[in-house]
Amino acid sequence: MADIKTFHLPDLGEGLPDATIVEWHVKEGDYIKLDAPLCSMETAKAVVDVPSPYTGTVKKLHGAPGDIIETGAALADFEPDPNAKQRAEAEATGHHHGPKKAEAPAPAPAPAPAAKAATADREDEGTVVGAMVSGSHVHVEQASSVGGVKAVPAVRALAKKLKVDITRVRGTGTDGVVTMQDVKDAAANGSAALGAAPARAVPASAGRHLAPELPEPGAAPSRTPVSQAGKAVRTAPPSVQASGQPEQLKGVRRNMARVMAEAHANVVPTTLVDDADLHAWIGKQDITARLIRSIVAACKAVPALNAWFDGKNLTRTLHPHVDIGIAVDTEDGLFVPALRNADVLDGAGIRAAIKRLRTSVEDRSIPASELSGYTISLSNFGMFAGRYATPVVVPPTVAIIGAGKLCHDVVAVMGGIEVHRRMPISLTFDHRAATGGEAARFLKALLDDLAMPN
């Protein structure tokens, strides 16, 4: 009887309980070599290739593209090739490949100081909208050649999302690697639509087809509130068929839902709002860079809000440096990359760092280390709409600043009125870790810096 091995979904180094199948690189019955790409999986941070743990025949795939697989659950069954070299059972791979333990393990001896330090380094290694415990293994996306096409998993996922046949996309990257921009260009010009057959030239002398020609389909009929008889078209609420099936949250959105629910359950939020008067600004200013500078000034004036708070042990950690988590909205969900060392960057450095972070978020190449460990957060929602907000404080941070839409307000001045450009500012803080007075002084320091001419 053949020796069948079951491969369980490993911990992909994200500290998350599951991942979504994006694409299988093999099918049942295929022969695969050790460490060859088995499938692409989407987590809350990236799309990564999962390598095969065996050389042999794929007997069963436990799931289809779009399915969510829990960490430790069966992913694929293999019949290892007895004549091929396999990885030793005890050889470390950087992942835990076994199923989840049903019971907690017995207490272990106290770790050595070096082990304690290593554990401490792992306590906050990354998430999209919050800090969660994870392993220390870092996955670097590398272009793999599947189907004769060289591309990283994130590019393959984007091609599938945009309905682009990646096998028909000309790669402009190094060694012919297909890039994000290649896929976006192909989607824009329609040169590699999924399922479309290559155009074939038809000789001018070719005869007409004998089948009758059908008229071109017209535009879909528009919806109206009444029928042709003048009666209401629908009087019942939308059914499941009319409104669509419930959609399972995956990847970034799935993690966002978990983190926001946890934050809502554990934080005691309080919000203060006010308007920053920008009337004294001289010349053109980089608004985001000025916001960052003002947050840094406020953190130096009132360190209580540039801190982490441990609600279980009731401990507070004040930070001498300022790492600002900047909320980045994407179609896939919310990312919060960290702008490191904001307190020592000038305006040009801030702009360059933000551009780099946004680009790496958009192409899903941002490493996990840049999605965690920030000391305070900023949500610049006013880029779209809205004056004031109550943004969510995600533990262990203590505060988040919300910047609203710039507006021109009539303000009273000595001897009359003037029209000033102002920016609405919202400050939400965890009232367990900071007092109302500290929050108010922080907000004042931020407003005072924003009001400066330069």
Automatic annotation (TrEMBL):
CDD domains: lipoyl_domain
Gene3D superfamilies named in the record: 2.40.50.100, Chloramphenicol acetyltransferase-like domain (3.30.559.10), E3-binding domain (4.10.320.10)
Compositional bias ranges of the Low complexity kind: 212-221
Cofactor: (R)-lipoate
Family: Belongs to the 2-oxoacid dehydrogenase family.
Pfam families, A to Z: 2-oxoacid_dh, Biotin_lipoyl, E3_binding
Subunit (UniProt): Forms a 24-polypeptide structural core with octahedral symmetry.
Biological source species: Dyella agri
Biased segments, Basic and acidic residues type: 82-94
Protein name: Dihydrolipoamide acetyltransferase component of pyruvate dehydrogenase complex
Start and end residues of each stretch annotated as Disordered: 81-125, 212-249
Keywords in alphabetical order: Acyltransferase, Lipoyl, Transferase
Residue stretches making up the Peripheral subunit-binding (PSBD) domain: 150-187
EC number per UniProt: 2.3.1.-
Domain Lipoyl-binding span(s) in chain numbering: 4-79
